[in-house]
Amino acid sequence: MAHRVKKPKSFGIWGNTDKPRFWELLDPILAWANExxxxxxxxxxxxxxxxxxxxxxxxxxxxxxxFFKTDFLLTLGGDGTMLxxxxxxxxRKTPILGIHxxxxxxxxxVTINNxxxxxxxxxxxxxxxxxxxVLKAEIINGDGPKVFYALNDxxxxxxxSHRVINMRLLANDRFVSDYKAxxxxxxxxxxxxxxxxxxxxxxxxxxxxxxxxxxISPHTLSLRPIVLPDDRSLEIQFPEGGKAEIDFxxxxxxxxxxxxxxxxxxxxxGFDIRMIDFExxxxxxxxxxxxxxxxxxx
Length: 298
Known about the structure:
The protein is an alpha+beta fold. It contains 6 helices and 17 strands. The chain starts with 9 loop residues before the first strand and ends in a 7-residue tail after the last helix.
């Protein structure tokens, strides 16, 4: 685990407001903050959807710069909630602690049952920080460059089309391979257990610094996922030309539509996302419990 850190004085709350469980937990969390002498911040989205006022004080995160006022960010939802929070925090280094409210939470490993025990540890400064690599993508699509950041992955796929995509991958301007496939996944170590894993990609421990490139249904049996060092600058071209639309997804939450004249440049971002972990955090235990990793069939 990473080094111990200072005791927090404030924290933000970022939640999936579509889940009734979130609203059941909001007031108890604000009460805990009040008892722990911590200033709590909620997002404007949460404030706008409140029915009545909570019985405990809070402040509001009105812009991304307000993350600088918080010592950590508590996310309530699932892994998707953590991914959206990570993109919002961006380069600001605010540590994130995820509470999962559903059946399966891999990144958000803290459960509702042990939430306040974990929060008490954070309030006492008894936690560590684990840095998670972020990917940056720059898309040249004929209308100026667009930049995106992903904690999990970037996915190129054929969208609504029934045709395979012809893609060319270069690393540091060196030809890697041509791919004729339904798509390509570019995953961080954090994202290696997401979509990339489902197409046969490797599990990469989160503290590693690497880029996993996994083809989706390649039309050549010899094309397998490849793990590249994090200092490689990747370029994806679509050499066939034509008018077919291509879907580009960011963490499975943000989409951009490309044409075959587009180019995509992917590299490690200039910042990390910081995740809160604890002395007894065990990645392999989470793999076994959440993914059934290493278990033999009945």
